[in-house]
Specification:
This protein is α+β, with helices and mostly antiparallel strands and about 475 residues long. Helices cover about 30% and strands about 25% of the residues. It has helices at about 15-30, 95-110, 140-155, 180-195, 210-220, 250-255, 305, 335-355, 360-370, 405-425, 450-460; strands spanning about 5-10, 35-40, 55-60, 80-85, 115-120, 120-125, 130-135, 165-170, 200, 225, 230-235, 245, 265, 270-275, 280-285, 290-295, 310-315, 315-320, 370-375, 380, 390-395, 430-435, 440-445, 460-464.
């Protein structure tokens, strides 16, 4: 990740011994890790804008017209880092909601993606996904730069690209989904009681330097009404065919280079080659659909006709369906869309592999008849706990931000590894607990949303 970064340091808005020393060490450390450090004067294109793909580090709070946001080519392709010589605006004992509000307030006022606070010989990194990473000695930052900062710059938080999603307003009929809707309503109450699901932070409640900056924030967030963290979802039932061992497949299929292209169309059927526990399996990939909360709604006070949407992954396309009564202007897919669909696709692959060994495996049966729950909250289960039949994974992954392709890849690959672990230990597989460092936890499997809330609360999950 570090070797793929290009970074430039803007002329400082503010100087201090602590900031100057920190910026110098950060520049040295990034260069040592293989990042390309570009002189500021050489970072611009012919149009006078900083070229896309370059991370911009600015020092201190500058005048409105001098901020890097006014000079970048892209809101999404120029990650912005700001260095401040002060304590972070979040107390060490702050609650989840207070932490979220404090971070979003800093981002909106300064129009930066990753604020870094240098204080008392230490430094703290904050991100849009609500993370507060308190790093060590600012004089010895090598490990923290690599493991805490670089993944945030290489995998930037951003909303789903509208060009990749087919929006179909008014096409979601909730009437046939009464069982699922009831689970959302009951689950919302349970998550409200747990205190783990964060509330909505409205853009109207934030302070901005001027109207232009307010419009920039709105554009960056794809004109959402605000930021909310966590989601509730139910994967809708899907029946899957048993997987086939590649070693037992016909010669023409065995001859294909599945390692180079693990997903391809075979006789009109999308087929994946998934390795689980050392065995290569050919799996027919079905369309998968997930009923989930829309971006920005209050997850603990769901109004189904306005707040529930359906995501479908169909032959590589993402479909987004809303109910007829939904406010089209405010219905937006979750930042975690890729991760949600990766979990759904992974569950289908897991069920297919399980059916290869046991035709009526309970996990595959539940997916086919009832569907599965999926919940994400900004906390962690204590001591690596997992519900019975669930496998925990992900805590050793790089701490990439939500909404990134990397987070979706970790969800899918980790789920298959968790399945392999369950099979190897002769454990009855019911689902997985996917920990995302500096972000939170995804709980996916055979339980209700209310049961997921009660389990998370019982584990005394700690803030991310």
């Amino acid at each position: 990740m570090a070797a793929e970064l290009s970074v430039t340091f803007a002329p400082p808005h503010e100087t201090s011994p602590a900031l100057d020393a920190f910026a110098h060490r950060l520049r040295q450390r990034l260069a040592a890790l293989g990042a390309e450090v570009i002189p500021y004067a050489e970072a611009f294109n012919d149009a006078g804008k900083i070229r896309e793909g370059i991370v911009v580090v600015e020092q201190g709070e500058g005048p409105d017209d001098d901020l890097a946001i006014r000079r970048v080519s892209s809101l999404y392709r120029n990650p912005l880092v700001a260095l401040y010589d002060r304590e972070p605006p979040i107390a060490p004992d702050a609650g989840l909601q207070e932490t979220l509000d404090g971070i979003v307030g800093v981002l909106a006022w300064n129009l930066t993606h990753v604020p870094i606070f240098v204080h008392g010989g230490r430094w703290t990194v904050c991100t849009m996904n609500g993370a507060v990473i308190r790093c060590g000695d600012a004089d010895d930052m090598d490990d923290d730069v690599l493991h805490a900062l670089v993944p945030k710059l290489a995998a930037q938080v951003k909303p789903p690209d509208p060009a990749t999603i087919c929006v179909r307003p008014g096409t979601l009929d909730l009437a046939p989904l009464g069982r699922e809707v009831d689970d959302f309503v009951e689950g919302a109450r349970a998550w409200d009681a747990s205190g783990l699901m964060l509330a909505h932070t409205s853009l109207d409640a934030l302070q901005y330097r001027n109207r232009l900056f307010r419009r920039i924030v709105a554009a960056y967030l794809d004109h959402r009404t605000g930021m909310s963290y966590g989601f509730l979802a139910r994967q809708l039932p899907v029946d899957v065919a048993p997987a086939r061992a590649l070693a037992d497949a016909p010669a023409d299929l065995r001859a294909l280079d599945w390692r180079r292209q693990p997903l391809r169309e075979v006789e009109g059927v999308w087929t994946a080659c998934a390795t689980v526990g050392g065995t290569e399996w050919l799996v027919d990939v079905p369309d998968v659909s997930v009923l989930c909360t829309r971006s920005g709604c209050e997850k603990t006070r769901i109004v189904p006709e306005q707040d529930l949407v359906r995501l479908t992954l169909s032959r590589g396309r993402i479909l987004f369906d809303t109910p007829p009564a939904a406010d089209t202007a405010h219905s937006r897919p979750s930042y975690d869309t890729l991760a949600i669909l990766a979990h759904a696709a992974g569950n289908a692959l897991a069920a297919s592999v399980l059916r290869a060994g046991v035709a009526d495996h309970p996990f595959a049966h539940t997916l086919a008849t009832e569907g599965l729950a999926l919940a994400h909250w900004h906390g962690y289960p204590a001591d690596g706990a997992a519900p019975e039949g669930f496998v925990i994974h992900g805590d050793a992954n790089p701490p990439v931000s939500c909404s990134t392709p990397q987070s979706a890849a970790f969800a899918l690959v980790g789920k298959l590894a968790a399945l392999a672990g369950a099979l190897g230990g002769r454990q009855t597989y019911r689902g997985d607990v996917h920990v995302e460092p500096h972000h939170g936890t995804n709980l996916s499997g055979a339980m209700s949303l209310a049961e997921a809330a009660r389990w998370a609360e019982a584990q005394q999950a700690v803030p991310a």
